[in-house]
């Protein structure tokens, strides 16, 4: 039986693929459980510098399986809520991963599939990819952080339109809105995402984790709270071997060897 999350390595980059192509990678219980485990494994792996998340076949992720969702009508509200929290645990696992996570989107990213893409730190989209907050089409309201993620990217008016109409938005439009970091031609998103991930994987691991945290909290913190967090992280970074390597490389007119530092092979010149 095929695994729900496929994993392969491209140098220092781990590529995780949602694997349910017959249903356009609609989410399954195995995916809810498997993706956080795969992310945790990549996070612990010293040889992994960044992660790319994509889907097998022609779609990124079609969102929730409507057959399974329909069955929840017979459940108690507490049981329904418990099922949603499993999905939300997966979203938090993407958001909280200390290593950069890049979504490579081809085809549809609908409903919770859109949320998965937006939970990633960066997003690479094919020009003809399709993004939709599709819940209203079947009489549902959004979950999985769709409104939270989109509210940080688009105006309230556009957010409301996307959620109330369920109208798909192309990869090209998402790029013009600043939601997608990179735009490619069809079937080019994965290669572009891997190239971007390889660049990030060569960077300072702990500084990158601090930067991720700062960027994630910037929209919700007050200025004073963000200044305090920046001061905390800068204090930590100044005492870190990564800054010693970076500064030594700058004065030595050489590329910083953060990968060697992680492996204990970097030589810091004075």
Question: Key features?
Answer:
2-enoyl-CoA Hydratase, Chain A, domain 1, 270 residues, three-stranded mixed β-sheet, globular, single chain, alpha/beta, 2 domains, Enoyl-CoA hydratase, Lyase 2-enoyl-coa Hydratase, Chain  A, domain 2, 14% strand, 49% helix, six-stranded mixed β-sheet, EC 4.2.1.17, Enoyl-CoA_hydra/iso
Q: What features would you describe in this structure?
A:
This protein is an alpha/beta fold and 270 residues long. It folds into 2 domains: 5-201, 2-enoyl-CoA Hydratase, Chain A, domain 1, CATH 3.90.226; 205-263, Lyase 2-enoyl-coa Hydratase, Chain  A, domain 2 (Orthogonal Bundle), CATH 1.10.12.10. The chain has 12 helices and 9 strands. The strands form 2 sheets. The chain has a 6-stranded mixed sheet, with helices on both faces. α1 (29-44) links the parallel β2 (13-18) and β3. α1 packs parallel to α3 and α9 packs antiparallel against α10. The longest helix is centred in the first third of the chain and has 20 residues, at 77-96. The chain starts with a strand and ends in a 7-residue tail after the last helix. 38% of the residues are buried.
Question: Roughly how many Å apart are the termini?
Answer: 55 Å
Could you name the CATH class of the largest domain? Alpha Beta
Strand order, main sheet: write it out. Answer: 1-2-3-4-6-9
DSSP strand content? 5-15%
**Count of all domains:** 2
Query: Helix- and strand-based class?
Result: alpha/beta
Quick check: average pLDDT?
94
Q: What proportion of the residues is helical, as a percent range?
A: 40-55%
| Helix-strand sequence | EEHEHHEEHEEHHEHEHHHHH
Query: Looking at this structure, what is the CATH superfamily of the largest domain?
Result: 2-enoyl-CoA Hydratase, Chain A, domain 1
Pfam family, one: ECH_1
EC number: 4.2.1.17
Organism: Paraburkholderia youngii
Family: Belongs to the enoyl-CoA hydratase/isomerase family.
